[in-house]
């Protein structure tokens, strides 16, 4: 008897999570689904070590900065395919998702058939992206390479540095000693080639969605 699929859905809209759960049930009856609504809950779910077969990720959850959750998942669980499901379907957003390691991208406006095709393709070890994509960005490629040098723990520390947290606050959030956080920060700055926490924070902000893309997402949700 085959083990049922286990999927992690990360999206802050309860109704959309329910819609995804229903769609997945049609694709793979009997599957197991875990849901999270923000970045902290995502980290907690991943930390539990559940053997997920697929992660479905929105780009605008509370606590996330654009592609930061995607970069986190790719660093923490490189074997786990990540399918982005977003209402920001601008060509550059799709291209950036691919460059930062997503296995697929499905616009929230896409029909159920497209979602089914994407899920099946990704579970089979392939890729699934809409045809409209912008040109490859060398800046994003370099950023992805730099971030790939970090360990999962260093990436967690970096994201909190970008949020403006002090070492003492990061230590509390991650259950580490303040000295351990200091060591991680030093290693992060060295690996990224940054001379200060401010430089590192600016680097992380490059993961943010383009302003045009964010505006487009708000328009679609509102419409």
TrEMBL record:
Residues modified to 4-aspartylphosphate: 58
Gene3D superfamilies for this protein: 3.40.50.2300, Winged helix-like DNA-binding domain superfamily/Winged helix DNA-binding domain
PROSITE patterns: HTH_LUXR_1, HTH_LUXR_2, RESPONSE_REGULATORY
Domain HTH luxR-type span(s) in chain numbering: 143-208
KW Disulfide bond (keyword) present: no
GO process annotations (BP): phosphorelay signal transduction system; regulation of DNA-templated transcription
A GO term, aspect molecular function: DNA binding
Domain Response regulatory: 6-123
Keywords: DNA-binding, Phosphoprotein
Keyword Phosphoprotein: yes
Protein name: DNA-binding response regulator
Organism: Lysobacter silvisoli
